[in-house]
Amino acid sequence: MNGGTIRVEVAYGEPARQVLLVVDLPAGATLAEAIEASGIRGQFPEMEVAPDRVGIFGRKATLDQELRDGDRVEIYRPLLADPKESRRARAAK
């Protein structure tokens, strides 16, 4: 991209369907701006974007974090079960 724009990916998935969208944004754009610009909410109207369930390349991030060219923004779904509790239950059996 040229010096004034960046290209990022926005990813979200459900068990039956996953989406990866490419978005061009002005340099200095934030994670929240990438989500909005991607239009992903139109494809997943029930999706909730919580500040504690977003990341970049598998690492937690904040909605106001500035993106770099090539970043992959990930929107995470809430966990259905606490992994620690699941392990304890398996160990107890």
Distance between the termini: 55 Å
- Beta-strand percentage range: 25-35%
Write the CATH fold name: Ubiquitin-like (UB roll)
Provide the structure class.
alpha+beta
Question: What is the domain tally?
Answer: 1
- Gyration radius, rounded: 16 Å
Q: Can you count the beta strands?
A: 5
Strand order of the largest sheet: 2-1-5-3-4
CATH architecture: Roll
Shape: elongated
Poorly predicted spans: none
Structure description:
The longest helix is centred in the last third of the chain and has 10 residues, at 83-92. The chain has helices at 31-38, 40-43, 83-92; strands spanning 5-14, 17-26, 54-56, 59-60, 72-75. It has one domain (5-92): Ubiquitin-like (UB roll), CATH 3.10.20.30. It contains three helices and five strands. Strands 2-1-5-3-4 form a five-stranded mixed sheet, with helices on one face. The relative contact order is 0.22. With 93 residues, it is of the alpha+beta class.
